[in-house]
Amino acid sequence: MAAQRDIHHFINGKATPGTSGRFGDVFDPNTGEVQARVALASAAEMGKAIETARAAQLAWAAVNPQRRARVLFKYKALVEENMDELARLLSSEHGKVVADAKGDIQRGLEVIEFACGIPHAIKGEYTEGAGPGIDVYSMRQPLGVVAAITPFNFPAMIPMWMFGVAIACGNAVILKPSEKDPSVPVRLAELMVEAGLPEGILNVVHGDKEAVDAILDHPDIKAVSFVGSSDIAHYVYSRGTANHKRVQAMGGAKNHGIIMPDADMDQVVNDLLGSAYGSAGERCMALPVAVPVGEKTANELVERLIPEIEKLVPGASTDPDAIYGPVVSQAHKEKVEAWIQKGVDEGAELKIDGRGFTLQGHENGFFIGPSLFDHVTPDMSSYKEEIFGPVLQIVRAHDLEEAARLASEHQYGNGVAIFTRNGLAAREFASKVNVGMVGVNVPIPVPVAYHTFGGWKRSAFGDVNQHGMEGVRFFTKIKTVTQRWPSGDISDQSFVIPTMQ
Ligand code: NAD
């Protein structure tokens, strides 16, 4: 038997073996076998890493923004050079196919590209002559040490959303990635040091609840950026803000795709397949709910989807022909399959059942075939909750108003899409729907890096989004200086507040 591979923390520019004595298993989802174990940090280990980051941060903040950007330019090139290796590593722990793993890394790199523009993005504002001889200027300063706590489903993109912008702004970062696929975050941090980032500015500390709680309670952590499931997001938000930290905490999702009778049905079928089943449905911007408007649209949609879904066969994540790979863990597989059973028990019509799927040669892998439900209704818990697997649910609506209400009233409000040729209806829908990110004939409307990412309702706690200028605002604090230089004129003494009267 091969020796156990250990995945260490990466602190102060070095691989740092864990000392807590606690480890988590890292699986190969294709085979179901444990392929490595990852150190799980104790609160004391986390505290030491935070101290290290704190000691390094002031010098980094003093590096001018253009030089900070140069490290990121170099980093982008280095990640691109290592793309194949990173994508294979990511795929081997997450289970998404290699091409999709490259997309995960590329979307993160696009935030690094945005962060390369930090000299422009971080510029303050200046008003000359705000009063007699008085100028006012504002500047954005880094917060200090900040934490990034990330989910398993985008082990490259989401860490880069956070550390790309945070580092560019002059902060030091503690990245606590998902313990399910921790290797790529470590490689990303190693490459940052290779690109010239001073040691101690980007640290990866693995762990579970104990490590997260240590972050949330530590006085030297000034901000926490979190992405994960909603209950944990709410917990992180509550505990972090109670400890006076700035917190943005993105949660789960249940995105609706509304199909109008005038939609291009070829495009809709194509888009739904990719966005419902791609990455085995483990995307917070997946479209797991289709809402056809009118019986005729619904019947046509179901009729056209069924033969296409039946062709979707999952495969090993390393197979270049696989449409999607296994889900991340046995526990997750069981959870998704339990939701399928719940849907059946609640009375939804299971048109295609993906349970019990096995891949020859990978009998113990965490594979689930694609499932399709018709006649799902809003009172069903399998509709209300996130399934996060390769399951598409069809909820039939009579008109656009009813369809829009479903998305608007759902507890989650991450993304929504409308498929139509009617520009006016789409415009009105985009304006009124109670959801944070909207696609018009775009099934996965993940905004580009220089715009901003964030859902509404139980999909996000806190007010500031990820990346784009929102990210710069999140990772900086603003200082405003009102200045006057002595001119010899002594102004009148006054005991009332100065005004611009
Ligand atoms: P998760 O909530 O289980 O884990 C997220 C992070 O929280 C991990 O780093 C994990 O170690 C930590 N964590 C887990 N349990 C904890 C606890 N009890 N106390 C403190 N920390 C804890 O999420 P996941 O399963 O890794 O990721 C999938 C979820 O993330 C889905 O719900 C998905 O919708 C969501 N997600 C949301 C977005 C978004 O931007 N809204 C993006 C990607 C994923």
Can you describe this structure in just a few lines?
With 501 residues, the chain is α/β, with parallel strands linked by helices.
What keywords describe this structure?
single chain, 501 residues, alpha/beta, Aldehyde Dehydrogenase, Chain A, domain 1, Aldehyde Dehydrogenase, Chain A, domain 2, 2 domains, seven-stranded mixed beta sheet, 16 helices, 23 strands, globular, binds nicotinamide-adenine-dinucleotide
CATH domain fold name of the largest domain:
Aldehyde Dehydrogenase, Chain A, domain 1
Q: CATH H level of the largest domain: which superfamily?
A: Aldehyde Dehydrogenase, Chain A, domain 1
* End-to-end Cα distance: 82 Å
Average pLDDT confidence is: 97
List unreliable stretches of 5+ residues: none
Question: Describe it for me?
Answer:
The chain is 38% helix and 21% strand. With 501 residues, the chain is of the alpha/beta class. The chain has 2 domains: 5-251 and 459-481, Aldehyde Dehydrogenase, Chain A, domain 1; 256-440, Aldehyde Dehydrogenase, Chain A, domain 2 (3-Layer(aba) Sandwich), CATH 3.40.309.10. The strands form 6 sheets. It has a 7-stranded mixed beta sheet, with helices on both faces. Strands 10-9-8-11-12-22 form a 6-stranded mixed beta sheet, sandwiched between helices. α7 links the parallel β9 (172-176) and β10. The chain is globular. The relative contact order is 0.14. The structure holds nicotinamide-adenine-dinucleotide. Nicotinamide-adenine-dinucleotide is lined by residues 149-154, 176, 178-179, 208-209, 212, 227-229, 232, 250-253, 284, 386, 388, 414, 455, 459.
